[in-house]
Here is the input.
Amino acid sequence: MTAPWITYRPELKVLDCTVRDGGLVNDHHFNDDFVRAVYQSCVEAGIDYMEIGYKNSEKLFPKGEFGPWKHCDEEDIRRVVGENDTSLKLAVMCDAGKSDWKTQVLRKDDSVLDMIRVAFYVHQVSEAVDMIHDAIEKGYEVSGNLMAVSTATETEVDQALEVLAQTPVHVLVVVDSFGSLYAEQVERLVKKYLEFGKATGKEVGMHAHNNQQLGFANTIEAIIHGANRVDASMAGLGRGAGNCPMELMIGFLRNPKFKIRPIYQVLQDYLLPLSREVEWGPLVQYNITGQLNEHPRDAIAARKGDARDDYVAFYDKLTSDV
Amino acid sequence: MTAPWITYRPELKVLDCTVRDGGLVNDHHFNDDFVRAVYQSCVEAGIDYMEIGYKNSEKLFPKGEFGPWKHCDEEDIRRVVGENDTSLKLAVMCDAGKSDWKTQVLRKDDSVLDMIRVAFYVHQVSEAVDMIHDAIEKGYEVSGNLMAVSTATETEVDQALEVLAQTPVHVLVVVDSFGSLYAEQVERLVKKYLEFGKATGKEVGMHAHNNQQLGFANTIEAIIHGANRVDASMAGLGRGAGNCPMELMIGFLRNPKFKIRPIYQVLQDYLLPLSREVEWGPLVQYNITGQLNEHPRDAIAARKGDARDDYVAFYDKLTSDV
Here is the structure.
């Protein structure tokens, strides 16, 4: 008998996606003060990576209409983190089909960033491969984040992983975009990703959504089965139901380098006030889209409408045959 | 390869504890309309058991100060459920040390109740055994709910289970009173309870609390490892962080006898309005007591005080050495 929940794996690394995923609730209009507070909290808490936003296209997402963390221009990042003379590594996400990555991603020598996360749907795997090669040639650590894996067939996932396995990508991330996966499904996906990645030593990550209040639990499940890279966000901030809450994740991890107090501090100083302006979390409409394995867009719209409290009407709409 | 998450075990039964556990947030002052709505929702949803309250002492919990669901007098129950001419079975809980069970629990022939749930701490196991024998002799199905199992030693738990195994109790329930257990701990406890109960065919149940947003996940975990009796409550209503939410549980279970729509109906008609009057759910103070494996009483007090938004002060208080 062992008690693995009181020990730790030194190689397990935590990424904060508060600003990147959370920005989907406010078009990335965080002010510098908020981003700096999250950054400072991550540094003090011993978190390994902070994903500070997207590098997505200014043409598709015009400046002004979208805040600076949608594009993460170098000067915007540096205004907050300076030279980032800390042990916290900085990441951005580039979306296949939505990023001018060839020009938007600078050479690592010219950037304060450390990691590029390439996000793509299964049909975009070819562009993802080009993006991965580009980012690695520029000098970054790179992850491949196959989104909405719960809606792809097993054959498609296998095919995408086979292609990714042949690239020099460092991390393969299981992404439960719709918050629909249960523990046994997480286990199988993590084992599958590990199997495809093992020949070239790729790490496996987990990015969970909280539609069914399983964001934290599914992240633990992924860790148990070998994932060494996990995503979480302060107060679970993220689109719709949000993500695995960082305050729960750090409470679970036993590596003494992690400190939870700075996380409670940013929660009370920044996330609690934010929660009075914008809404996120595992509300009933998000439960329903998670259970139905659907994109949360209908739930997001319902939460903003007059019928936000009519759960039955929402359920009827999503389960009607017409 | 199998996909167990799309099939079901016919023997798996669900108990609704909305009124019993939820009554801990309002001293069981639910009006008949609320209790009837929960009852009707359970009937329509195909839920197996509804725990309608406690049979606890009127001397310890004076009438008036506490509502009728603290004592569950027969006439109070019947005012809501009549003869309960449905497939829903009715349960009450009796607390060791707090119940005049010898007189409060009528003979089954004289009651509309079907099940007695005996709740006790590990040091109260001897009274629990007496209570179990009494309830079985009176004609009920009976469960033994060893509370706060996360704070008992393994030797104590083994001893209690050995004693319980020798009684005719029908169900042994793993009770995570403080919401502190992680998946691997749930797995071991469920397997242990099954092992002790198997010689006499006892079922194993799971009663999870949601302090770390693990109530639903830990209940799934218990099911995976063989628990056939699970507790949940509408909107997760329950003391402090609350319980495993019924709307998530029923969304997960694949037995076509379960219907989720009546649950959404009671959520919007009754639980949502209630949530504007009383507070429950996995708030930060409950995260902290869960992580520390402590009773939620300090968290409940903190949520009611002026410093409810000062998470850091609460964390400092609970982790200080003095």
Q: What stands out?
A: The longest strand of chain B covers residues 89-95. Residues 183-197 of chain B form the longest helix (15 residues).
